[in-house]
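#onboarding

Welcome to the new folks! Below is a worked example of what a typical request in this channel looks like: someone posts a single protein sequence, and someone else replies with the predicted structure as tokens. Don't worry about understanding the tokens yet, we'll cover that in week two.

Example request:
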Amino acid sequence: MSLQTADIQTSSPAPETVIVRNVKKYFGPTRALDGASFSARAGEIHAVVGGNGCGKSTLAKVVSGILPIDSGSVSILGEAPSTPAESRALGISTVYQEVLVADESSVVDNIFMGADSLFSKKMSQDKKVARAAELMQELAGEPVDPHAIVGTLPLGLKQWITIARALLSEPKILILDESSAALDFDSTERLFAKMRSLRDGGTTVLIVTHRIAELIRISDRATVLRDGRDVGVLERDQITEKNLLALMTGDDEAGAHRDHKAPQPRADDIAMRADRLSIAPGAR
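Example response:
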């Protein structure tokens, strides 16, 4: 093999695992997605970013199979799943923005909640306890009693439980919707390390976020949504605050001007004018 051929093969992009084309999703008269398109590759951390109401969480739920689409197409690893169960069978795991745990149940029961694979069904309770303890130690960075009642735990540990649940099936595609919101700085760093490890192992990691500083640090690519539409895809070296803000707002100069001081009033500017003003007796 020639060096030139090797270089061409090395530079070839990884296969696309998620392809969304011209998807529309309505909630009554509201257009949550208005012809949005998006694609993600194996072995990358891909951010979906935008302001509030741009449709990014809706897109995540469409990809995970939670929400049906009104038009367009969604392809996951070459298949077109129509239910959450079909999406899970293809290797999708999702951590939603809401911290979804059963407070009255134990840590181990929460982690294995909804695990319907033949592998998990054949696991003994002792093995489930050991696996839960192993996952929580790795993710939370501290030992967590698998038998502890989840309602007694702080919010950060509850979030780790939802992440452990998603990782239990060793997903091919992991979707994280604002998953760092309940985590402190050290926990966020551990989450980033895990995301990089998954990416390096070939997993597609999709993060839905509005935290620009975080996505600049962690993302390999970023798709920006505005008003339910995709308005740009940024490669790693293009992911800057200025570029993101320009796409999010539709203002090419948004990033350049955001730190400029407000214009100072001139001496002859009128600050307030009153005409035919009267003051009631006794008023001050």
